[in-house]
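We read letters as residues; the fold follows as tokens. A sample entry reads:
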Amino acid sequence: MDWKGAAARCLGWLTTLPYRRPGGRVQIAPGLLGNGRLQIRGPGTVVLEAGVNAWSHAEVNRLITTTPKARIRIGRHARLNGCTLVAAAAIEVGADCVLGSCFLRDHDPAPGRPDGSADPIVLEDNVWVGGQVGIMPGVRIGRNSVVGIHAVVFDHVPPDVIVAGNPARVVRALDGQARGIIE
């Protein structure tokens, strides 16, 4: 490992020191890369699996839970680059995902449900989410899919496609050769 990689691992460890209490609500596996732009707030559980890269050049990565039952899980080797995740129920980010400066919120600011429940957001493995993307409550993004910049995703996205627009719609299927580029 070169000195830059070692410095990023040390900085990732140091900046998450306030969250590293034994038995606490934040669980951080080994190998976190960071540069001090990671905020974790709220009463719920946040899990960062091994090798998460929370290195952001301009934006702060925000992982916010709004209820004690809320859970945010970031899969192994995922890359966070200025994203904001706000969970009342659950946000699941799979392994090897790349999140640009997107906004994921699993509930509306004023939920219409009497019980205040929320629909989870799920990003399956190897999903790429571009900058300024909004993903709405209850959406599942299929494995190996790409969400284009400025898209707003209201419905489930199948695996192996590129979606774009507002509302987001499939603009192209990824064949085996194209998929090999992003895997």
